[in-house]
Amino acid sequence: MANDFIIKCINSVVKTILNAEEEIESLDRAIGDGDHYINIKRGSIAVQSIESELATLTPDQAFKKIGMTIMTSVGGASGPLFASFFLALAKEVSGESNLQQFSKGFTSGVESIMNRGKSKLGDKTMLDVLIPVSKKLESLANEGCEIQKLIKEIDLVAMAGVMATKDMMPSKGRSAGLAERAVGHIDPGAKTCQIIISTVCKELKKIK
Ligand code: ADP
Ligand code: MG
């Protein structure tokens, strides 16, 4: 993994997030407090603004820097959770990181969110996308899956994860207070994660 790929992904993610304003905002207005889009926008633009610095770093240093930048620029519940993902990922990847190592790092990032958020699969959060994606990514990477097939499968798992949040009863975050009134609504953090994962998948497709 090279930093120029990480930077390409950052730029693409910023574009996709800006295009998804209405969708993300309406989801958090329905079952949150309406600030999720602002939080995500602020974080992704803050990361984009340190691009030239990221270019000089190794991937592990870059992920650490991304985590620190999110930590200091994004509020709400999601800021520290996304930050902890990147900080844990940074500890697992190295300069010559391959897909297997990255998938291990991704899983470690997801576990870090679970620890920090005291949350698990089925709580109607971003983890309902991230946990299935991490499991699929690790198993496909370990079995040496062809990259185009891997991209397709990850995209599908992320989409299935976000759709599954719709019928879930929330037990973490602001939506938990709504109880059954939140049923029938997709979780905004899950949607954001799916959008980001799908954007990275599109960038991956271009290099192979
Ligand atoms: P806030 O909830 O503080 O307003 P955001 O609106 O930025 O923060 O983020 C809300 C999203 O964060 C939710 O949609 C959910 O996916 C995620 N989230 C909230 N609490 C948790 C938690 N404890 N564990 C995992 N994800 C969480
Ligand atoms: Mg919110």
Structural features, described:
The protein is mainly alpha-helical. The protein has a single domain (about 5-205), classed as Serine Threonine Protein Phosphatase 5, Tetratricopeptide repeat, CATH 1.25.40. It has helices spanning about 5-20, 20-30, 35-50, 50-55, 60-75, 80-90, 100-115, 125-140, 145-165, 190-205. It is globular and about 45 Å long. About 45% of the residues are buried. The model has no long low-confidence stretch (mean pLDDT about 95). The site of adenosine-5'-diphosphate has 23 residues, from helix 3, helix 6, helix 7 and helix 10.
Structural class: mainly alpha
> How many whole angstroms does the radius of gyration measure?
16 Å
Number of helices: 10
Q: Spans with pLDDT under 50 lasting ≥5 residues?
A: none
Q: Determine the strand fraction and express it as a percent band.
A: under 5%
**What CATH architecture would you give?**
Alpha Horseshoe
Which fold does the CATH topology refer to? Serine Threonine Protein Phosphatase 5, Tetratricopeptide repeat
How far the N terminus sits from the C terminus, by CA atoms, comes to 13 Å
- Can you identify the CATH superfamily? DhaL domain
